[in-house]
Amino acid sequence: MAPRIGVVLFPGTNCEHDAVHAVERLGGDAELVWHGATSLGAYDGLILPGGFAHGDYLRPGAIARFSPVMEAVAGYAAAGGPVVGICNGFQVLTEAGLLPGALQKNRGLRFLCTTVTIRVESGRTSLTDGVEVGTELSIPINHFEGNYTCDADTLAELRGEDRVVLRYVDNPNGSVDDIAGVCNAGRNVVGLMPHPERAVDALLGSLDGTVLLGALLRSAGATTPAT
Question: Which residues are catalytic, by number?
Fold first, then answer.
């Protein structure tokens, strides 16, 4: 049976259909989940996609963290369910305390829309399970506040626990330690700024997103958390 992936939709989200298309292209089933939902169905994995949740008022993700669905997302994550936040979804996960650190304005205060090379630093997460450490991937970015930051103690913890999931080969936004993605202590919640869902079609420039999203579907197929 194909893994069922819930794609959480906030007002202002604009990458939900990209995520659905990518999941279905890889053989999964995807379904949109409105931010007002107070419980989740029997999903095998969750994606919080990119966009501008609640208009990014105050700061990205600051309002979305209070959406009713986030309590259900937190419970799902606590039960071991695979959760991936992409771009704005990453920002939401940090604001909600499901991932450490924060995303601030890019170095140089410029919006970035380009393709970057990222390197897989940990193969033991819901987004990289089975992917060889050191693998380099060509993935698009599209953000103004993608500069990952955290305090020195948090950075030492992330490094020491092998929780830096992805790094930029050539840092585009000033992120500390070239970080492009991190995971939680349970390794089932991952946030990243690059958009793997936009790299699943060779006609659009790259198939490298299938490496990450394929790993997510494998992780989802192996996990059935209580919701």
Answer: 87, 195, 197
